[in-house]
Write a structure and sequence with these properties.
Blueprint lengths: L3 E3 L9 E7 L7 H13 L2 E6 L13 E4 L5 E4 L3 E6 L8 E7 L5 H14 L4 E10 L9 E5 L2 H7 L2 E2 L8 H11 L4 E9 L8 H15 L6 H19 L2 H13 L11 H24 L1
Parallel strand pairs: 2-7, 2-8, 8-11, 9-10
Antiparallel strand pairs: 1-3, 3-6, 4-5, 6-7, 9-11
Helix pairs in contact: 1-5, 5-6, 6-8
Length: about 290
């Protein structure tokens, strides 16, 4: 395993691998926030990593500088980290891969993940993604996806994706899983294009509902549900104060997805305007708390 290193060897029981990658596959950071939530809820131990140097252009995917607990500067490199999560109430444990979509050598990158799947006797793979869509933010978040098992798709209530076009690392990996007969399911949250800022707790909650059903494992989502209510309230206020966004949303409510591309306002501009309002609102709230 040329690019894979183990921090320690663990004896996991028929582990299920859950994957998410920041970047193209991660609109509003919803996919990576979902895997973060799972690790935080269950507890995970870092036991393996994929080497960064062969797979990244550090002028595009730059390392980050941060201050540690001692207020000393440290460098954080793009990481693809595997966490082992023990789930004694189930007949299998979990492996969570929190990664960053690579810039280079996608075939080698995928082969490295396949090597870990073989080495750890992974029984199933769940990949989590999120994408920008022309959907109304007040509707329930739609989760689309695919699986190698049609009966499983029916059980999960996953609508089959009809997407054609450029794909990300998840698309390549899922194609590999299909060809190698590795049981896999891919779930994608559809994020409103005019409210594309991070994090989106409503999308995380929708993805968690699917993950919970796949695993037959309950998670405590009470805090997440509270965040959803606050999130929707802030978005509604932001939209009500922005005429172009409000007019677009009104048309979207009336006709949902029947608008043509020519009729749609710029999703990027609308998202920027909404995000700016929410940031200003948060800053004003902080100033009030400090008084």
């Amino acid at each position: 395993m040329k690019f894979l290193s183990y921090n320690k060897k663990l004896q996991l029981r028929n582990p299920v691998l859950i994957m998410s990658f920041s970047g193209w596959n991660d609109a509003s950071s919803s996919a990576t926030s979902t895997s973060d939530f799972i690790v935080d809820q269950i507890g995970g131990e870092n036991f393996a990593e994929i080497e960064a140097d062969p797979f990244y252009n550090f002028q595009q995917t730059r390392p980050l500088v941060y201050l540690n607990k001692l207020k000393e500067r440290e460098i954080s490199w793009p990481e693809n980290t595997f966490y082992a999560c023990l789930t004694p109430d189930l007949d299998h444990d979990l492996i969570i891969l929190q990664g960053v979509e690579p810039n280079y050598h996608w075939r080698n990158f995928c082969d490295t993940i396949l090597a870990l799947i073989k080495d750890q006797s992974v029984s199933k793979v769940i990949s989590i993604g999120s994408l920008i869509a022309d959907v109304f933010h007040g509707d329930p978040i739609s989760v689309s996806g695919s699986t190698t098992d049609p009966d499983f798709a029916s059980f999960l209530g996953i609508s089959k994706s009809r997407y054609e076009g450029p794909t990300g690392i998840l698309g390549i990996l899922n194609d590999k899983f299909k060809k190698k007969n590795i049981p896999a399911v891919s779930i994608w949250a559809n994020i409103p294009h005019y409210v594309n800022f991070s994090p989106n707790p409503k999308a995380v909650l929708a993805l968690m509902a699917k993950v919970s059903r796949i695993l037959s494992l309950k998670f405590n989502t009470s805090e997440l549900e509270k965040n959803v209510l606050e999130f929707e309230e802030k978005v509604d206020i932001a939209i009500s104060k922005n005429k172009p966004v409000r007019e677009y949303v009104d048309r979207l409510i009336e006709s949902r997805n029947s608008l043509t591309d020519e009729e749609l306002p710029s999703g990027e501009n609308l998202a920027d305007e909404v995000e700016m309002f929410l940031r200003q609102k948060d800053q004003n709230n902080k100033k009030k708390d400090e008084k």
